[in-house]
Amino acid sequence: MAERGVVPVDQVITPWTSRLSGFHKLPVAERIAQVVRLCRLTPEEASRLGGEDALSLEIANQMIENAVGTFQLPLGLGLNMQVNGRDYIVPMAVEEPSVVAAVTFAAKIAREGGGFTAEADDALMIGQVQVTKYGDPTEATQKLLAHRDELLALANSFHPTMVKRGGGAKDIEVRVLPAPEGPQSEPLLVLHLIIDTQEAMGANLINTMAEGVAPMVEQITGGRVYLRILSNLCDRRLARATCRIPVTALADFDLPGDQIAEGIVQASRFASADPYRAATHNKGVMNGVDAVAIALGQDWRAIEAGAHAFASRDGQYRPLSTWKIEGEELVGRIELPLALGTVGGPIKVHPGVQANLQVLKATTTRELAMVMAAVGLAQNLAAVRALGSIGIQKGHMALHARCVAVTAGARGPWVEKLANLLVKAGHVKVDKAREILSSLSQEELAAATGTG
Ligand code: MEV
Fold first, then answer.
1. Distance between CA atoms of residues 219 and 225, nearest Å
2. Cβ–ligand 1 contact at 379 (below 6 Å)
3. Percentages helix, strand, coil for the chain, rounded to the nearest 5?
């Protein structure tokens, strides 16, 4: 019985925030309990979040062919994220140490400037139809454009419900591309169907429409259609995020804020000029984007393909995010294509994804895209902040040391203890970890390895 006037802890309505200080120091069970309370998860959702029941073999067997099991990744929560004034607790599935810590830390700095502002385009995707043996390219183009309405009507006839929801095929475009080197000199003729996929990532819908219009395209042009497939370069479905951080808020490592900001701007210049650096810069961005995508059951290969194709859109591979100093602020901007879904694919089928969506509380693909763009920018901020100043190895080593400690056999509080000893010794290697463990007494060793 609760005391009169005292609300039991599990019924306290906690104000919604992603600023959960001390979260990382809690035991895992307490972290889960806190998230369950905050996000009002059901007991089933809680056990899915914790890994149990995230994906049964039965469901896995329905998802892919030749299933023999399920494969797990660590699931962490990116904290402190604030996008367009709203707080988000961000589920991230990733095997690399430091990714979750980095995004959480960078989002905390970004909060000093009001968090991230973000926007996302309508869900406009492209379905491609490759036409060959069409005769004159200009004539074939004109014929296709003249039949725009019939082509759109036919495409939409394959998905009337999508049309009812306000989506579907909206437009066409025809592209004539120079013939690549080879024996055939015919220029390439490509019809694009521009399709609004609403809350779906849209691959199936787009492919059905592209295949569905092919006979009409052949009839109109007198040509022969080969490929009919979506394009992962979805450059009409972009998400953008910005953050403005007071330079003074960047002070760290005994360095003033303006020095840290200068290092970040230099990192941005480097990536803008050099594809070798831009690839690594973008890898850092995608560390965050992919981790969220995986946790939320998104097609991360499509996201990766789109991001890198978009990064090369002007002929040189460039960074997806840039940093500038404007007045007293460091300003970061990111723009990238994000083809996401809140329906279809594994999203409704995978119980773990459902629980993760319940934690994130983003309800539309547009909202999801804005959060993911902000996560990508935060991830990049954490990387370039360290790279442009003290380097990343120091921070990485501390986290890497924990993996090494686990590999060597440490369990429980001894993981942290052994990791600290390794870092102190300046020798973060499994053999060193084993050496330290073997120097312990029998009793200590049993406690350290959880075998006592
Ligand atoms: C490592 O996973 C990611 C970084 O290399 C990104 C970067 O260099 O910007 C640290």
1. 10
2. no
3. 50, 20, 30
Q: Residue 90: which H helix or E strand, with range?
A: strand 86-93
Residue 15: predicted pLDDT: 57
Query: In sequence order, what are the residues at sequence separation of 6 or more whose Cβ sits closer than 8 angstroms to the Cβ of residue 17?
Result: 87
DSSP H helical ranges for 53-175: 57-63, 99-111, 137-146, 148-157, 160-164
User: How far apart are the C-alpha atoms of 270 and 281, rounded to whole Å?
Assistant: 9
Q: How many C-beta neighbours within 10 Å does residue 441 have? A: 8
The residue contributing the CA closest to ligand 1 atom 10 is: 383
396 is catalytic: yes
Sort residue 115 into left (φ over 0), alpha (ψ -120 to 50) or beta: left
Q: Whose CA is nearest to atom 1 of ligand 1?
A: 284
Write the burial class of residue 129 (CB in 10 Å: 0-12 exposed, 13-18 middle, 19+ buried).
buried
Residues 168, 198: contact at Cβ < 8 Å? no
Q: Is the CB of 287 under 6 A from ligand 1?
A: yes
pLDDT category of residue 452 using cuts at 50, 70 and 90: low
Is the pLDDT at 88 greater than 90, yes or no?
yes
Give the CA distances from residue 412 to residues 111, 419, 452, in Å, rounded to whole numbers and listed in that order.
33, 12, 12
Measured CA to CA, the distance from residue 406 to residue 385 in angstroms comes to 29
Cα of 286 to ligand 1 centre, how many Å?
10
- Claim: this prediction has a pTM higher than 0.85: yes
Question: For residue 167, what are the contacts with CB-CB under 8 A and spacing of at least 6?
Answer: 123, 195, 196, 197, 198
- What 8-state DSSP symbol labels residue 14? P
Q: How confident is the model at residue 8 (pLDDT cuts 50, 70, 90)?
A: very low
Place of tokens 């073999």: 57
Of 9-18, 195-204, 339-348, least confident by mean pLDDT is 9-18
392 lines ligand 1 (CB under 6 A): yes
Q: Is 288 exposed, middle or buried (0-12, 13-18, 19+ CB in 10 A)?
A: buried
What is the Cα–Cα distance from 149 to 193, expressed in whole angstroms?
12
Give the contacts of 65 (CB within 8 A, at least 6 positions apart): none
How many Å from the N-terminal Cα to the C-terminal Cα in the chain? 39
Instruction: Measure the CA–CA gap between 321 and 326, rounded to whole angstroms.
Output: 16
399 — pLDDT class (breaks 50, 70, 90): confident
